[in-house]
Amino acid sequence: MWNTSGAKYKHMLYNVSRARRKSWDKLKKAIEWYILVLKKETLLGETKWVINTKKCAEARLKKMWITKNMVIETLERKGLKDLLSKIN
User: Fold this and answer.
1) What is the pTM of this model?
2) Which of 8, 12, 16, 39 has the greatest CB tally within 10 Å of its CB?
3) For 60-69, what is each residue's pLDDT tens digit?
């Protein structure tokens, strides 16, 4: 019979570290996602999608210890000062 243990190939012939690639830009991506949500809020208004996504984005910022000052600095650096009024 064949090998039914779930291992379909010899692991020692392949890469030892088969874990997914880690993103080292997590803080930057979290801030960019929050800015994207703020942009969509100015375009679409306060829709249900925008409200729910903004909650998720703010929770991610809080989880990663990203302060409002960091977001404000990024907005000013990108020249998006009109979005400063949307930050809670």
Assistant:
1) 0.72
2) 39
3) 999 999 999 9
